[in-house]
Design brief:
about 0% strand
Length: about 100
Amino acid sequence: MAHEGANLLREQTDRLRALGAKAPATEALAEVDAALQSKWWCLRVIAIETLGRWGEPRQIAQLEALAAAYAGRTHRRGTWERIAADVVTKALYREGKS
């Protein structure tokens, strides 16, 4: 039997994904902002996906800022920044913003 908190990362990713299905409330915005600063790249990437799913002007502005921050960087393909940049681009494209 796993100890308490063993599935914490999984629970956090599931919660972030669920947040994207609802309108962004103040607490949800704070949770996504915190995930963007997480040490876990998977949480950062899912937070970016959540921003894209919300697709409101504030979130689109955040995505555009993230895309600009990663533009022109020459990271190896597997780095979280490269993955995040790809996710940002896809999120903006889905919303018709790129």
